[in-house]
Every structure is written in C-alpha cells, then in structure tokens.
Amino acid sequence: MMRFATLMKHPADWMTSGDSETSVVLTSRVRLARNLAGASYPGWARKNERKEVLSKVQAVVKDLPGMQNGFLCELSDLESLQKQVLVERHLISREQAARNEGSAAVINRKQSLSLMINEEDHLRIQAIQPSLNLEKAYRLAHQVDQELEKKLCFAFDAKWGYLTACPTNLGTGMRASAMLHLPGLVLNEQIGQVLKGVGKLGLAVRGLYGEGTESLGNLYQISNQSTLGESEQDILRHLTKVIGDISRYEQQARQRLLKNEPVMLKDRVGRAAGILTHAQIISSKEALNHLSMLRLGADLEIFSTSLQEVCDRLFMGTQPAHLQWAAEKKLEPEARDILRAQMIRDQLHSILPPAIDISE
Amino acid sequence: MMRFATLMKHPADWMTSGDSETSVVLTSRVRLARNLAGASYPGWARKNERKEVLSKVQAVVKDLPGMQNGFLCELSDLESLQKQVLVERHLISREQAARNEGSAAVINRKQSLSLMINEEDHLRIQAIQPSLNLEKAYRLAHQVDQELEKKLCFAFDAKWGYLTACPTNLGTGMRASAMLHLPGLVLNEQIGQVLKGVGKLGLAVRGLYGEGTESLGNLYQISNQSTLGESEQDILRHLTKVIGDISRYEQQARQRLLKNEPVMLKDRVGRAAGILTHAQIISSKEALNHLSMLRLGADLEIFSTSLQEVCDRLFMGTQPAHLQWAAEKKLEPEARDILRAQMIRDQLHSILPPAIDISE
User: Fold this and answer.
1) More exposed terminus of chain B, fewer Cβ within 10 Å: N or C?
2) Among A266, A269, A356, beta carbon nearest to B303
3) CA A25 vs CA B139, B184, B326: distances in Å
C-alpha cells in the first residue's frame, strides 16, 4: 500500500484533464452507500462492532483489482492536516474526517476511486471523473460494488433496495453529483433563477464542500435528491440532461456577456488578474473568487488558455490544508494568506508577469 | 486676456512642483474675503448692483501686475463643464460655480492666483502654492489685496476689521488651508485621533472639495476656523506649526508601517497597482483611493518615484470634469468610468506595464 506523501505527490487524475469540455462541468462524482447485513450502523455500533466491520471490509477491499498499490489508512492514523487535505480533494467527506479509530479511507493510485469505511454507512464507494461523465463515474463505482458484493453480504430489501443509516439514501444508495463553474450566470444575474429551476426538478444545489457550505468561486455542486423509486440509470440520465442544459445556459451567458458587455467582462477578469498578480496577502475565499474570473477569462480566450490548467491547480492548491501540506508545516491563517498570495504570483508569473515585483 | 482652452492647456504651477517635500502636504492656499464699502453683499444685492460692483472691480483687476495675460470671465459665459473644471482645480468655489450673470472669475496665467467677484463676498482673493508654504501663499494674496486697496474702498471697521457677508469671515477675512495626503495615518488607524486633535486646536478638517465633502483618496484639507481676534501672521504661524506636526506624524506612521507591517503595506500598494493597471471601468472615487495607495508606494520608493508626478496628474485628470474636458465632450457616467480606466492605464503604462493588455 502507498504512503500518504506518495498519494499527495500527484494531482488526482480528474484534476488534470485539460479537456476544453471541462470549462463548465469540472468533475462528476458518484457514490454508493452500502451496509453489511446484520451489523449495526456505525452511528450506533459499539467500538468493537465498528472494528469488526472495518476488518471484514478492509480484508476484501485490499484485494480489489482497482485498488492495487492504493492508499489505505485508519482515520486515527492520519493527522488532522492530512484529513483536511483529503476533504479538500473530495476524497473523503467532512463527516469522515471527524472520525477516528474504527473508520478508514481507501484511495486508489489515480485518486479516481475512494472508499470510506464506517462513515455514516459501513461503506461508501466513490468514483470521480473529470468533465460531465456521470455514466463512467457510476460504472467505476458499480464495478467496485459488484466485486465487493461477491464477498460481502450487503443489507438489501427486495422492496426498499439497499438499506442505509439515513432514510434519504435508501434504495439505490446512490448520490451522483457534478461540480459546475458558473461565473457567466452569476455575472448575468441569472443564477438565482437557474438554481430555483434545478430545485423544482428535484435536484439539490450545494457549495464547494457539500451540504451547508456556501458557494465560493462561482462553483456549484448539483446532485440528485431522491434515491428511491427510480433506477440508477434513470437518475443518471435525468441528472446528465439537467447538467448539460445548465452547461449550455452558462455557455450562452458567457457569449452574451462577450457580445453585450465586453467592457464589464474585461473589467472583471482584468481586475482579477491585476489583484492575483499583485496581492501579498489573500484569503482562500478571495482567491477562489478571483481565480474563478481568471478561469473565465482563459475559457473565453481573453487570456491565454494555458491559464485554465494553472487556475484549476490553484483552485485546489490554495485551499488551507493543501497550502500547509505544500509548506510542510501548520501555519496560522495570516501566514497562510501570505503564502497563498506568493504561490499564486509564482504560478501565474510566466503567463501573467506583474507590473512590478514588490515582494523583495 | 487668455482663452479658457489656453488656461487649461497647462497644469497649474502648484500641480507640478515635484518637490519631495510635497509627499504629505500637497498644496497651501490662502484666500481673503473683501467687500466694497457702501454696496450690498452679493447675496442680497439686486442684479444691477451686482453688475455695478463687478464692473468696478473688473476695471481694477485687469490692471493688476500679477494678472497680465490672465483669464477673466463672467460665470454666465462659461459652460457648466468649464465651471466644473475650475472647481476641480480649486480655482473657483462650488458656490461660485453655481452663479451666473454678475459674477466673474479671474485667474492668472500660472493659476497660482484667482479672484472670485461676487461670490458670497464682493471679492475673494485666493493664492495657491505647492507644498507647505502658507506664508508665501499669503504674501501673494496680500500683494493683490494691497494693489486693489489703492483703487477700491473696502468695507473695514476699526474694531471688527474687514466686514464680510458671513460673520465667520469677519476680521481678517482670511481662510488659510493646506491639502494633506495622509494614507499612513489612515492605514495605521490613527487618523481619527489626529483629526480630533486638530479640532481641539480650533482648526477645521474637510474633504477634497471643502466644506461638507467626504475625504477621498486619504486627502484632508485643514484650515483655520476663526478669523477674528488674531493677526494674519499668528493664524498662519499656528496653522503652519500644526500642519508641520501632522506631516511628521504621517511620515512616522509610514516608517512604522514599513518597519512593522511591510507585507500589509506592500499588499495595499500592490493591489492598487494591480487594479489601476488592469481595470476597464473605474469610478472617480475608487480611482482616487487607489491612486492614493500608488502615491504612497512611490513616496516610500516601493515603486519608482517617477510615479509621484503621474499620480498627482491623475489625481486631477481623472476628476469628472477634467476627464470630459480632455475628451472634448460631455460623457455619461459610465462612459467616463471607461475613459478614466483607459487614461490611468495609458499614463501608468511606461512605468507599470499590465500583466496583460486586454483592452483590445
């Protein structure tokens, strides 16, 4: 199995696609919730029961074909900074990061597959893909699910489907979601209407870090609400259609801005470039918002399109835990804000040199 | 006499001193209020009386040694844009700009002397000098006053001194003021305390355009409140001392920032440079605030000191009327904001080239 540092040495597979298709839909994710028949759910299992489930699942997971040379670690063996890095990378949930002994994370080498053992359910199987590709993400998660089902007995009811700790996951146990970058709809002030429409279609909209988090950097997560009464394929098809529609609205919004409000658009992306190339102190939140504008400028070829990749790298790399991981130490918020500004200036330098270098 | 366009072709003498002394105190101004004995004050004079006063004063003013080849114009003959330019250049007051027939402005070639006829008083004599030099400004105004007194009979009372339309000017009729740039005290959050102290010393603090205007670009006007019971020399000495003290506090604040908070300081001046070199739309207010930071960066040699002069030129040139005068037409606010951003980028370009030129 792989060391944590080795895992972090490379970006996840889905972080570097560079696909022009990803200019609106950045990533697609599917996760399946599964539980072992006859065992208490983690939330009310005693420690020993949780450990028993963990060792049962762990033994099977290790042999999965997709998990060769992957990363496997009990949460109690991870430092809080490491946990936070995995959360920022969407490889484990915030809930899982809060757990310790008896809970584990398993991640494949490409970071396209991750398994959470003893999160809310005994097992959560997650697959991430770049761009809008929920079908493929589902296929990968489903493969793991099938492999595991050969050796584990999942709690399943003929009428209700997969049984889960929380009734909102009952049935398919599937939550499919995509991360969308919607600066055009935000600038056009159409975002409220679009998100309202999404809600009416029975889908959920969330911020960058899932439930209860605010939207930063014009990033929105759209996912299915219901897991019951529809097949996985129906859910994926519906979601793919809606996200495809939103992606087209976003593209139209951008073209409209370019045509009708070119100066406003250039002002917004220009200011973002000006601030990011000159700031000496910048919060994670402010950085995300300016990076969003920079990414938009690159998508629209106002800037060099080579900035797309830099922006995506910085979207992730400027997050608090990633930043501290790169610095190889814990940093106070103020020191982080200084390092973040420096990292951004450094990474933009070859494409966007500052008017003046004042950082000594 | 000179045409308006000729007057505007050159900056005022006090706008281009380039003196390093002017890094805190930008300009010094003195104005004397005078009225003709036996004539009603302009505020309650009938039109004919005002015209009579105007022609009397005008005849004398034309022959003043300092006014040779100057500019002389009745307010009714100026377009509103021209009036506004003179206000922005502090050559006439906002009150005078609101007047028409029967009121006039007289300005010397160097724009260091201006006379307002039939403003609140029959005559206001104003002299402007760069840097902290209230004595010299007073000397210039006083010379004009003495020349005029040879030919005009001013309303003067042995006990009260010069009689004025408003009792707050009674006595010396003198208002002396300096324009201070105090970004260091603002960043250090000491400004409130300093201004409170100024008030306790019997002096008044105002924003960029005098009474009732807010402080923009960290610019503050400090002037004497009382005109009665003290000699001109005493008033000037007191004011010069207080302004000298504030100037030193400001210098100390800047050095403290440079020593104790270099990153914050560089962040603020860096962001200003980033925004000014990249914005495509910018309001007068926002421009002033960023130019203030840029000027501070130049004063502290974080940027090339050659930016000082550019900043001072832009402080004036980005004002709404100056901008429209340069464009040779009236512009809607939005068009002004676009032109202002372009003017700033153009004038900064040789010293601070943008990371990317996106203005087409």
Assistant:
1) C
2) A356
3) 71, 46, 46
Q: How distant is the Cα of B272 from the closest Cα of chain A, in angstroms?
A: 8
The one-letter amino acid at B45: A
Domain B4-182 has CATH 3.30.590.10: yes
b/e map A177-187, b = 16+ CB within 10 Å: bbbbbbbbbbb
How many residue pairs bridge chain A and chain B with CB atoms within 8 Å of each other?
93
> A274 to chain B: nearest residue by CA?
B274
Q: Are A277 and B274 a contacting pair at CB < 8 A?
A: yes
CB distance A148 to A34 below 8 Å: yes
Which chain A residues are Cβ-neighbours of B336 within 8 angstroms?
A: none
Give the nearest partner residue to A263 out of B278, B280, B348, using CB atoms.
Answer: B280
Q: How far apart are CA A127 and CA A148, in angstroms?
A: 15
Q: What is the pLDDT of residue A10?
A: 80
Task: With beta carbons less than 8 A apart as the criterion, state whether A112 and A129 touch.
Answer: yes
A299 to A227, A252, A273: CA distances (angstroms): 35, 13, 14
Distance from CA of A23 to the nearest CA of B (A): 20
Residues of A in contact with B274 (CB under 8 A): 271, 273-279, 354-355
Sequence-ordered strand ranges (E) for A212-258: 219-224
What pLDDT digit, counting tens, does each position of A55-74 carry? 999 999 988 888 888 899 99
**CA neighbours within 13 Å on the CB side: how many for A147?**
17
Q: Which residue has 């997650």 as its token pair? A: A126
The answer to whether the CB atoms of B275 and A275 lie below 8 A apart is yes
* Span B261-296, pLDDT tens digits: 999 999 999 999 999 999 999 999 999 999 999 999
Q: Mean pLDDT across the stretch A157-179?
A: 95
Domain ranges of chain A: 4-182, 261-348
pLDDT value, residue A238: 95
Q: How far is A357 from chain B (nearest CA, A)?
A: 9
Which pTM value belongs to this model?
A: 0.90
Please state, in angstroms and rounded to a whole number, the distance separating the CA atoms of residues A274 and B97.
Answer: 38
User: Which of B270, B275, B302 is closest, CB to CB, to A271?
Assistant: B275
Between chains, do B263 and A281 touch, taking CB under 8 Å as contact? yes
Which stretch of DSSP H or E encloses residue A199? helix A191-200
Mean pLDDT of A288-317: 94
Please choose, from the candidates B211, B272, B332, B279, the residue with its C-alpha nearest in 3D space to the C-alpha of residue A263: B279
